[in-house]
Inverse folding.
């Protein structure tokens, strides 16, 4: 199943080019019409129980719908810092997730498909990081690696927008709009093994990142298992699994698309409207990013610092 959240509230299921509105059925059953309700229903019953909600539900063209982030305000966004060897190399990093563990992004940074990434500063570099994200389906603490995927409700595309520099990761990655997600959640039963999915990320139609989740240093299961050993995970929490090589600067007017096999494409715009000078001094510190990524650089996307 492909499940969406709607701007202004409500939730639905995508069937081909149609949106099936699950909100009336949820309300009739005494639940709030939200992704959280679908997650709890799937956890208590089964994914099949979600399909039952679609029986007789109102349908409308998906193209007419305004989609929100699949989980609009997750309890936590847990992320993997360096989880592809080729990304470690391009950043001249000597440490990866095995040494760094995981970090948190502000939950308020989450936005949905078709949103606009708002760059806060005029004098800093911001990069795109396309990633596979798992959405947690049940409270999970200390999960073994071989049971960690049982805790996953589904998967979605995620863009981990990042300011380069020496500030703490939680600062550089937490600005509002810095975690676009979507366009929907593909439920875990439908997606199957997340361990060999092709992931691409393009800027203005030029592919910068093209990798497989088979190349993850720590698999999706291992990231979730480890994260659950650090912090209790709750339904709706989002776990970003890291980005492959090919990160590069994004600037005002860019369009960024993350495409993941068996999920779909998340597209967002970039704006620097209202940007100001950065008040912190990390611009020349921290991991050194590649000049413009390995692919052909797109017009207007040259490094700015
Ligand atoms: Mn990242």
């Amino acid at each position: 199943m492909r499940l969406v959240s709607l701007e202004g509230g409500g939730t639905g299921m995508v069937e081909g080019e149609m949106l099936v509105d699950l909100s009336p059925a949820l309300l009739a059953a005494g639940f709030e019409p939200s992704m959280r309700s679908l997650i709890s229903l799937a956890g208590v019953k089964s994914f099949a129980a979600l399909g039952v909600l679609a029986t007789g539900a109102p349908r409308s063209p998906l193209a007419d719908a305004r989609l929100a982030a699949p989980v609009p305000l997750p309890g936590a966004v847990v992320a993997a810092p360096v989880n592809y060897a080729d990304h470690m190399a391009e950043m001249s990093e000597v440490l990866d997730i095995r040494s760094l563990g995981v970090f948190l992004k502000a939950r308020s940074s989450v936005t949905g498909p078709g949103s606009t990434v708002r760059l806060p500063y005029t004098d800093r570099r911001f990069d795109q990081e396309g990633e596979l994200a798992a959405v947690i389906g049940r409270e999970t603490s200390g999960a073994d690696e071989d049971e960690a995927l049982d805790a996953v409700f589904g998967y979605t595309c995620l863009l981990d927008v990042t300011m380069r520099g020496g500030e703490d990761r939680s600062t550089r990655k937490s600005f509002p709009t810095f975690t676009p997600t979507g366009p929907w959640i593909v439920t875990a039963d439908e997606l199957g093994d997340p361990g060999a999915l092709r992931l691409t990320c393009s800027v203005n139609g030029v592919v910068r990142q093209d990798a497989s989740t088979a190349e993850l240093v720590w698999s999706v299961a291992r990231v979730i298992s480890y994260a659950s050993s650090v912090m209790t995970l709750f339904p709706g929490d989002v776990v970003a699994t890291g980005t492959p090589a090919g990160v590069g600067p994004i600037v005002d007017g860019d369009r960024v698309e993350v495409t993941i096999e068996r999920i779909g494409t998340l597209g967002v715009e970039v704006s620097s409207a209202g940007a100001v000078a950065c008040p912190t001094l990390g611009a020349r510190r921290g991991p050194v990013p590649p000049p413009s990524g390995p692919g052909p650089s797109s017009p207007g996307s040259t490094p700015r610092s």
